[in-house]
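Progress against Task 2.4 (sequence-to-structure conversion) is shown through the following example record, which the project officer requested during the mid-term review.
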Amino acid sequence: MKKTYKIYLMTALLFFVFGNYSCLSYLDREPESIVAEGEAFKNFTNFQGFIEEIYNCIPDKQKHYWTTSWNWGDDEIMNTEGDWHMVHQIDIGNFWGWQAGRLAQAGCWLDKPNTNPTSNDKFDHALWPHAWYSIRKANIGLENLDKLIEATQEEKDLIAGQLYFFRAWWHFELMQFLGALPYVDVVLSSTDKLTLPRPSYQEAADKAAMDFEKAAQLLPIDWDNTTVGRNTVGKNQLRINKIMALGYLGKNYLWAASPLMKNGPQTGGANAYNYDTEYAKKAAEAFGQLLSLVESGQTQYALAEYKYKDIYNHVRSTDAVSCFSDIFYTTGQNWLMPGSTEAIFRGSSTDFNGSNWNTTKTFGPKVNGLVEHDNQIHHPTANYVEFYGMENGMPLNDPNSGYDPNQPFKGRDPRFYHDIVFDGFKYVNSTMPASEEFLRHTSLYTGGIMRSDQNGSRTGYFIQKLVPHTANKYDGAYNWGGSLHVYLPYMRLGDIYLMYAEACAAFGGAKGKSSNFGKDAEAAINTLRDRVGAGHVSATYTSDNKKFMDEVRRERAVELSFEGFRFNDLQRWLLLTEYPYNVKTSHEFDRVEDDNFYRENDPREARVTNLREKVILTRQFDSKHYWFPLKVSDTSLYPEFGQNPGW
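C-alpha cells generated for the chain above:
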C-alpha cells in the first residue's frame, strides 16, 4: 500500500511533495489526522515510532550517490573525470550546484528530488528536503506531548528531549550552508499567509540553543542506563542523548561566535580573528560540561587509541583496546558500524555493503584498473598536506621544525602516515602478476605512472584515512569477504576538544578555559597530540593569541582532515576568499632513489630533489560565496524571505 500526499513544510516556504511512502500504521494518513486521532502519541512505543522516521532522514554524506563528494574546502580535488562533482562546482564558483536540478546530481548530499523519509535506500535522503520534513514532524510531536498519557516521566522526557534536539539540529545543519533562516517552532498551516522574516544568524542560533539546552536537560547520558533503554541494551548507540545535545549546543554557540557570523560576509581577512567573545564563552561552558563528564568517566565515550604496529596498513598494536581507524571504517568485524569509542553523533548506515558501491573505490589509483569501477578519485591537495607538521609538533614552515625538503616525508606528524599515501608507499600487499609489479609501490613523483590527471593523482598524494589502501583489486578489501563498512560521523570527541580549544582561545588565548573543566585551550590541543604521539604546542605560539589560534586551526585541519568540516571552517573564519586558502596545489619533485630502495626501505626515508609547489587552480570567490544561494522558488514566495546577498 502506497500513498502520495503533500506536506506543507516551511520556514518561509514551501510546498514540497513527497511521494511513494511505504505504509506504516502511524503514517498512512495526513499528519493532521494523526493528531486528531492521537494514536501516534498516546504511549511511548507509538510516539517513539513517530520519531524513528526522523533518525532515518539523516543523510549519509559518503554514500548519497554512486560517487559523491563532501570535502569542498581547500582540502581536496578530484581527478579531471570528476569535474561534474560538487567539489569542482564550488571550485569554479557555481554555488547553485547544491540544488537538485541545477546540475545532474553533482554527487551532492544537500539536495535531491524525490526523497523518501521512510526508505532504507541511502540514495533517498538529502539535507534540504528532509530538514523541513523533520522540523515539521518535530513540531507536530511537541505540540502533542499532552497526548502522551500512557507513559512514565522518564518516557515523556525521552520523547520531548529527542524532539527538541532534532528541531534544533536540522535548523543548524541548514544554517551552516545557507546562513540564518526563520526558526520554525510551530506547526505552520498550509492556509496562513507566510510572514516569517529571516533573523540574524545569532538570533536564530539563540533559538536553537534553547532547544539544545532543553534536550540536554531531559535526556540521559546513556540510554542503556534507563528503564526504557534496558529493553534494547547494546543497540542504543545512535539514540539522541545528553552528550550529543551538549556537543551541538557548544557547536551552535561557537558558530554564532565565529568571525563570519559576528562581522558578516566580507573579503580581505581583516576580521578573521574577530570573534564574539560572549558567544565563545557560552560555547566553552557547554563543551566544558561535556568534557568534564567524559574525563571523569561518566560517559560511554573516550578518545579512540592511536596504537599501531604497522601504521601504513592500519594494523593496531596487540595492547590496543580501541582503534582510531575504526572511527571511519571497519573491516573483518562483521560489518560493524564505524565509530569506535569516539563517534558521538551518527545517522544509521543499514546498507553497509553500500560502502563498496562506490565509496571504497574512489580513493586510489585507477591505473590498469588497480582500484576498480568508476574513474573517480578523491585527492588531498598538496597545500592541505602541508598542514601535517612535524612529529615535534612544529608546523613545516617554522625554522626550528627540522623539516627537510630533500626528505619531505621524514619525521612528520604521526597522522600523516595514517592518513596520506605518498611516493613509494607499498600500495598492494598481495600477490599480483609480474606484469603489474610496477603498481605495487606508488609512483607519485613528477612524471610517475600514477601522476595522470585522469586516472592517477593530480597532487602527488592519495588519501587512506577513510578507506584503507587495501581496497584494491588484488588485496580485495572491498570484496564481500572483507566486510568493509565506511561511515563518517557528524560529530566525534576529537572535534569537541578542538572546538573547546577554539572557543577558549577566542576569549582567552592559550590559557583561556571554561569554569567547569580543568583544561585550558592549550591543554585541550595537547590532549589530541598526546593521543597520537606528536609534540606539544610550542611556547612560540602560545605566547601570541593570533599565532595560537593559527595552531588551533592547523590542528583542526589535521585531526579532522577529509571528514567534511573544512569548507564550513574556512567559511566561518572569513578565510574562504583569502590566499592561501583559495588555491589548490600539487607537489612536484624528482626521485633520487631507484626502485629497489622502495622495495627494501621505509618510503619516509626516501630523498627527493627539486621539490616545488604548483598551483592547479585558484578559486575566484567574493563575499557572496560565504553563503550558498537559496532556491529562487522559495525566495519568491513572500517578501520577508529574501535571497542571500549577491545571489
